[in-house]
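Usage

Read records sequentially. Each one opens with the input sequence:
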Amino acid sequence: MATTQERRKATTETSPVARRRGLTPRQRNLLALGVIACCFALPLRGLLRSQGPPMEEGFMLVFPERVLHGDLPNRDFLHLYGPGSLWVLAGWFKTFGVSLWSERLFGLLQQIGIVLGVYGLARRWGRAVALPCALISLVIIVPPIGLTALAWVGGVALGVLGLLTVVEARSTPDPTRAGRLALLGGFLSAWALLYRPDLVVAVALGTIVMAWGMSRPFVRRILVGFGAGISLYLIHLFTAGPRAVIKGMVLDPVIYLRGGRRLPIPPPWNHLDGFLQRAGSLQQLHWPIPSLRASQQLTLWFVGLLASILTLVVVGVRTFRRDRSRFEARVLLAVALFSLGMVPQALQRVDSAHFGWVGCVPVAFLPVALTEILRVRAPGWQPRTRGALAGVGTLLALLLVVPFYTFRTYSDYAGQTFDQHRLAWKIERKGRVFYYGRPDVAAAAKQLLAKVDEIGKPGQRLLVGTTDLRKTPYSDAYLYYLLPEYPPGTYYIEMDPGVANRKGSKLAHDVATSDIVILSSVWNDWSEPNDSRKVGSDVPNEVLHRDFVDVGSYGNDLYELWVKRRR
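and closes with the structure output:
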């Protein structure tokens, strides 16, 4: 349903590539996709056996399993995002089983979705620029948190693929195929919001740019697909209840949680503020190339991310104004505004993980913007030369300026594939496996689990918390996954400061109605310049000491086991 002028422009731009001799277009596509596949495969074994984030990966293992048992997010357990990711992952677990491997392979598919989406969008400028764009996206999205199947990564993948589908719908001359693709594009965009409602600005801006100026039937198809997908929120509202949904998806993440998670903007030049950022930097692979300190790279990563988005927007607007009929100009503007809509995610907590989750699209698409600049400044250059220069230049910039948050971590995972620099210790119970990044914690957890098996009875309610329940900065939620016979006894499987320890929260009630309590001191040293340092209600501690007996501690008091006092 592309206009005649748009098709003529696209043909004119791509005709030099089509006339190149050698491999056929199909073979060149397969070669590019083969390179991407190899880059995913190289660190895969290392990623599958690496340490996981105890809370984030823990709750992405536990939440979908609770859904399979009939529990509902926001009603039965705290979940700060849309229900879509849990629905899909629950179906995945139903098919392939509940395990660390199935969860991580699902996370891999989400990352592949982002990279292939970026490749498909950049393909309009030729493979010479599309392949570097895909590799940049890959080396940015893999390092932050491994293969954990987080909702944000899945939401971005669906958003990018939805935008790509609408782009393909607009460019195809076949009205029937265009209508089907428009319907699918709207549906994928809706599912992006079912994963992460805060992607609404990004999805809306990108889709509006691509749909603007098209026929009413085309726009209607997008809206019908979007409506069919977003209507599934009604199921969540009716089952979990409007009050629980509003509290869990709006009040908790936007009002109560933010003060305990935000970090100073911009990141300081001389030190790292984030607790997990500091802990992760202690075990990093030695990097042979001279580079700045981690905190300095983080500051440059922050500035570079915002500069990349600004560059995309400026170049996208100018390119579109220069020739509104040129299809590539519209695609660039759509991606630029999609990227602009993701900026709040990078600002809500300025650490390398959030920068990677956002930068996997705008920084990866930066070579396209540079190609457009060279198109104007160096019109005599071949398109392939412009694309290759922009792509390789951006890759080199990441390698030399912010390697700690891109290439070094990727190289670390690749090395772990071949058993080099492995810093993950296996915790296994009854066929379920989790990898921890500290040997002392892993050893203590094994002792703890053995004791639970000795004194516990299946069906008893389990609560995992901190040794001082007045402070809830983090949680060893992975223990719920390793102890599936003991249903979670708390709404706060994911523990957050300002939420679980807030005065009037459900935590004291949850302690009182649990049968077994595991307390962790692993996160007692948590210190960040935000409200996570504030002490909350002491009532949960009072209930614990009134109703429970301390069975013992494990690993120099890393874990404590408490059981309900016999009456």
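Summary fields computed downstream for this record:
- The CA atoms of residues 183 and 220 lie 8 Å apart.
- The beta strands are 425-429, 432-436, 462-466, 516-520, 548-554, 559-564.
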